[in-house]
Prior knowledge:
Elements: H1 15-22, H2 29-54, H3 69-77, E1 85-86, H4 93-97, H5 102-110, H6 142-156, E2 163-168, H7 175-186, E3 191-197, E4 200-201, E5 204-205, H8 206-209, E6 226-230, H9 234-249, E7 255-260, H10 287-297, H11 303-325
Parallel strand pairs: 1-2, 2-3, 3-7, 6-7
Antiparallel strand pairs: 4-5
Bound molecules: thiamine diphosphate and magnesium ion (MG).
Amino acid sequence: MNxxxxxxxxxxxxxxxxxxxxxxGRLDDKALVEIFEVAMRSRIFEARLVRWAKExxxxxxxxxxAGQEIAQLAALHxxxxxxxxxxxxxxxxxxxxxxxxLTAILADASGREGGTxxxxxxxxxxVDIARxxxxxSGTLGGGxxxxxxxxxxxxxxxxxxxxxxxxGDGTSNRGTFHESLNWAAVQKLPVIFICENNGWAVSVPTxxxxxxxxxxxxxxxxxxxxxxxxxxxxxxxxxxxxxAAERARAGEGPTLIEIKAVRLLGHFATDMQEYRADxxxxxxxxxxxxxxxxxxxxxxxxxxxxAEMERRITTEVxxxxxxxxxxxxxxxxxxxxxxxx
Length: 341
Ligand SMILES: Cc1ncc(C[n+]2csc(CCOP(=O)(O)OP(=O)(O)O)c2C)c(N)n1
Ligand SMILES: [Mg+2]
């Protein structure tokens, strides 16, 4: 699998894509700082949610995304905010990155007023169409079919949107993966399939469930590009997604991108990971640490500025939590609204 470089046919309609082309496949300084800040917001917010779950405030149905935020955000950085996104269950960086307010996410998580799904979706099903956030399929593997169907709609409507669908390595073993990638490929649909391979599906190592080393190698079976990128390298992720977006907008069809990721925490909030030998050792591979070092070395942020950023975000998170705790629970009558259209 070759790492595709941006081609000469770049459209020019996307500032972030243009920027990465100009800098020869590297994110510019402003983008790196932005990605770092949103990743920090996601990390702090998620840790607070886990604590709230342990305190009994919300069901412990949170799948921590710690370790995977930088890659998720680098991917989104080169897409338009209007590009429809179907996210995965792991973490909140996707929706925070799209600008969904923390109060809305907290309200969804706790079934309070002010959320996006009126108590019906809980934490994993925040939907915010104005921000291109189309939710997550509770049945893993459902997203492939939905993304492909959305791709057909976009193509029929002759819009130049690109659908991005994030999913895990375990999910890539569902039959819907095959049906969808084949159809998206043959119809040349504008979909970017992004597999975050974190080496685990709950407590099952990928090597036990998956016959190939690289999930991206399956792209060959559909005649589409398959690209492997390092989830610790924001530039590599952003460049691969920029190339895939350009290809999709040009009507050339889908791309399968595999991010080699690290899951720093348990499958869900209260998972102690007794099954995992690398539980402590993997912390050194945290992409946040690498980006932190890079920003300091490049003189883009000082340690003091990062500490200040952390304090500011912590206050922001606590304020959002106080606001949502004071909001009323969603009325039971709303259980029967928005179910059919
Ligand atoms: C069809 C289906 N089977 C099982 C589950 C339960 N489940 C939720 S997350 C998960 C693991 C998924 O692993 P992976 O796709 O690698 O994502 P990760 O959790 O590692 O991010 C499972 C089995 C589900 N939601 N849907
Ligand atoms: Mg996984």
